[in-house]
Amino acid sequence: MSLLPLGRQNREMKTIYTVLIALYSAIAGVASLFSVKARRWVRGRRGWRDRLRSFSRGEGKVAWVHCASLGEFEQGRPVIEKIRTEYPDWKVVITFFSPSGYEVRKDYKGADFIMYLPADLPVNVRFFLNHIKPDLALFVKYEFWYNYLNELKKRNVPTYLVSGIFRPDQYFFRWYGRFARGVFQVFNRIFVQDEQSGRLLDSIGYNCYRVTGDTRFDRVSQIAAAAKDLPVIEEFRGGEALFVAGSSWDEDEEIIVRYINSNSGAMKWVIAPHEIDEAHLGRLEKRLAPEAVRYSRYCKKDSNCRVMIIDNIGMLSSVYRYAAVAAVGGGFGRGIHNILEPACWGIPVLFGPNHMKFREAVHLIERGGAVSFDSFETFSSMVEKYLSDPLALKAAGEACASYITENKGSTNKVFNEIFNNQGDENLLKKR
Predict the structure, then answer these.
(1) Which residue from 34, 140, 241, 396 puts its CA 20 to 30 A from 307's CA?
(2) Is the dihedral of CA 151, 153, 155, 157 positive or negative?
(3) 70 in a domain, yes or no?
(4) Which residues of 263-301 are buried (b: 16+ CB within 10 A; e: fewer)?
(5) CATH code at position 20
(6) What are phi and psi of 74, to 5 degrees?
(7) Domain that holds residue 286
(8) pTM for this predicted structure
(9) Does the pLDDT of residue 431 top 70, yes or no?
């Protein structure tokens, strides 16, 4: 089965798509003169052919996993590690589209080779696939690259979408989305997070999907199980309640800092900004009325401080374990960061108003485990409620913990469907 009918209109759309990809790459080159992110995107792809040649495929099997960015990687990671555990002779190749994924995980030990995804141009696609010769391709959440997917189909490579999630307003489900939704036909199976996504796929005549849930629940549970003891945080907290603000931005911090400045003695505070450059850390310190100490500079005499600022990357998930209440940033911008990380510790979670596209946020609000705030007043009222009402604090925390527990298990469902299904569609057993 070809990806799309070989009609004139679809050939023209394919040509337009490829031209747009080339144009995007050119624009990124210009943007790199002004943007650090764009510069990393461009520089990371320079010499990619030579870099790819350094990967020795060998005679065994290869799984190729593509992730847009860091969030998608964390969703795909449980499946990657399941493959490494069950099939240690397989090699794993991971590609990223965004620098925010590649730069953080380029040294990840669970993969044999990690690189930026070359631009989705036919000549690049053929070179990439000719070299790695994948036996399995996994795309995580919502990465749909037409030329890559079409070529995988031509080569009869089993291809799956993991932890997919869809919304009615996406172009796939609009009248003009015929060309775009043709990519669904490439996948041997699409694993979606919820029933709504399944119904949307049904509405366009695609039924080769399974509702398997969100692998992030497995991931955050793994993180919690492997969480490090942090004696510095424990000493700083002492016997007091601790509020942790994670992945905060300026808009989140404006409200949180205002509350701290007027209620500094109510509890202790840990702020872990999303951006930890010196300029941002310095601004944050100046805005805080009570003296704050940075994690990297903490010593025993600082235990009397009311506020600690985390000035490194990688420890936030372990910090949450010491919290009584957590806030997660991003809700005043493009969208909230990972609220499942604090939720898995059985503590209430607060976040800003831009959360409606995040099903876990909606569900946790419905269950009473989370609250959205859009002002200083709403933030203050919820903090005061949890401080003054231990039963409300306990109930909210239990709601979060039970939600995590009920939604674990997606990784095994996906893995078993791919590797253990005995049906005709399981092409892995035929290669």
Answers:
(1) 396
(2) positive
(3) yes
(4) ebebbbbbbbbbeeeeebbeebeebbeeebbbbeebeee
(5) 3.40.50.11720
(6) -65, -30
(7) 222-406
(8) 0.82
(9) no
